[in-house]
């Protein structure tokens, strides 16, 4: 018979754990003191979420809605657009980086101290100027690896949409790194059949392509005042400059130099497995850097630019036609490849992840839905799924639409009338028909340019572009054939 003291302790434990006071014995899960569910959530800070669109891919911090199709539903059509994989900095970013590094190296070429002590053994990760803009091919975060891995993952997820015999078109904008991503994705998705069953279609990025493009442009009333003044607005950059200058006298770094060095740091993991530069800056400084990147996308390529919703309406409107035609008439698989600034306008057109007010320039609004680390990291992607669903107690049988951003389900505005918080195709269609702006009139597209997107219906099925025709230079730039 247990003593009164032991009984009292057992009762107390039963109240705390929900276990019976007499649940003892080997093999009984209640005999363990291990918690069934951890109470620790330590992923609230990750450097990958403060790189903006510069650093390696990471999945979206989701709303907790399951990624797999809801019970009773099956994906019968998928329309996806993927940003190219991880890359080196752009040439314009490279100019700022090299200017800041010149100050660093001029000040002290032998021994560095403090937060920059690692520079005694560090070398710049861009081997030659021609690598600027190129997709990376080495390291665990390499862009080419990203493309292949996603193709492999999506074969498991959407492979049921391919009959194993028909030729499936892939659509890429005409820039070298985007084309390379599309090719690697195709290899991952089709495996041995890539050379015979994928047909790469390359859509030129020229503005003369008008609306028949993955990269439509809009040069009407394009005010860049805010965009050009973002690198100096955060006081944390000045604090970082003062700290590093005091540790290594003679560098004379400015706030703009700090921003450029953080840009450099945010790209380093794209080419290497480890970056010492991450720890050269504080957590506050990285949070501030990430918010500057949010501002850049919001005001320069997102809903803060009044023209971007019209630009994104090209893709949103054409995909709506595919959804209503359905897989029987239009086909089941539409994989597209472009740039980050071609995804953000689509989200603006659909009206998702838009803040209640314009993002402030004088403070960080925590809880901001427009966090670009969650929206367009390198390799980021946006998926529209058409679901065929059976009837449930709260929804009718029929087609539904679900939006997925970087593997996180994003409910569509106020329309969550379907399984898994999807939106019925009828309501989705009604909302878009009511809200989508007109691209050609908003952006004054010349009548001689294509007025609508047609390549999803008018594509080639040859495999001649599936592989490059010659050696790949470290950076090829635009290529339309």
UniProtKB/TrEMBL annotation:
Recorded family membership: Belongs to the histidine acid phosphatase family.
Protein source organism: Aspergillus heteromorphus CBS 117.55
InterPro entries with a match to the protein in the record: Acid_Pase_AS, His_Pase_clade-2, His_PPase_superfam, Histidine_acid_Pase_euk
Secretion signal span: 1-21
Keyword Hydrolase: yes
Protein name stated in the entry: 3-phytase
Active-site residue list: 84 (nucleophile), 340 (proton donor)
Gene Ontology CC: fungal-type cell wall
Coiled coil (UniProt feature): none
């Amino acid at each position: 018979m247990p003593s009164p003291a032991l009984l009292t302790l057992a009762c107390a434990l039963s109240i705390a754990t929900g276990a019976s006071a007499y649940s003892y014995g080997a093999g009984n899960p209640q005999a363990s003191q291990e918690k069934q569910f951890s109470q620790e959530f330590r992923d609230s800070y990750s450097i990958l979420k403060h790189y903006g669109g510069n650093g390696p891919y990471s999945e979206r911090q989701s709303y907790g809605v399951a990624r797999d199709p809801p019970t009773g539903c099956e994906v019968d059509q998928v329309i996806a657009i993927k940003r190219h994989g991880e890359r080196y900095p752009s040439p314009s970013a490279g100019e700022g980086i090299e200017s800041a590094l010149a100050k660093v190296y001029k000040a002290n070429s032998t021994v560095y101290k403090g937060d920059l002590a690692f520079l005694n053994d560090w070398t710049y990760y861009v081997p030659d100027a021609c690598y600027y803009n190129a997709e990376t091919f080495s390291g665990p975060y390499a862009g080419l690896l990203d493309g292949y891995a996603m193709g492999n993952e999506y074969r498991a997820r959407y492979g049921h949409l391919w009959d194993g015999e028909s030729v499936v078109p892939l659509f890429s904008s005409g820039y070298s790194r985007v084309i390379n991503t599309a090719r690697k994705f195709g290899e991952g998705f089709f495996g041995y059949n890539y050379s015979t069953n994928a047909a790469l279609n390359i859509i030129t990025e020229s503005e003369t392509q008008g609306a028949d493009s993955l990269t439509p442009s809009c040069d009407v009333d394009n005010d860049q005042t805010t965009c050009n003044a973002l690198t100096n607005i955060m006081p944390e950059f000045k604090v970082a400059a003062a700290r590093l200058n005091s540790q290594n006298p003679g560098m004379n770094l400015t706030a703009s130099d700090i921003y450029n060095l953080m840009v450099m740091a945010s790209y380093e993991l794209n080419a290497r497995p480890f970056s010492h530069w991450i720890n050269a800056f504080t957590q506050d400084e990285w949070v501030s850097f990430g918010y500057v990147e949010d501002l850049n996308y919001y005001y320069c390529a997102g809903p803060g630019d009044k023209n971007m919703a019209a630009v994104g309406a090209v893709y949103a409107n054409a995909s709506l036609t595919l959804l209503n035609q359905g897989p029987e008439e239009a086909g089941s698989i539409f994989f597209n490849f472009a740039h980050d600034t071609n995804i953000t306008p689509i989200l603006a057109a659909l009206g998702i992840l838009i803040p209640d007010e314009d993002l402030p320039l004088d403070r960080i609004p925590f809880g901001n839905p427009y966090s670009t680390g969650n929206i367009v990291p390198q390799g980021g992607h946006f998926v529209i799924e058409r679901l065929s669903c059976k009837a449930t107690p709260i929804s009718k049988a029929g087609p539904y639409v679900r939006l997925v951003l970087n593997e996180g389900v994003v409910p569509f505005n106020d329309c969550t009338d379907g399984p898994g918080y999807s939106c019925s195709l009828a309501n989705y269609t009604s909302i878009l028909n009511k809200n989508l702006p007109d691209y050609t009139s908003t952006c004054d597209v010349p009548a001689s340019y294509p007025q609508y997107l047609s390549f999803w219906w008018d594509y080639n099925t040859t495999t001649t572009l599936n592989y490059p025709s010659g050696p790949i230079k470290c950076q090829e730039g635009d290529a339309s054939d």
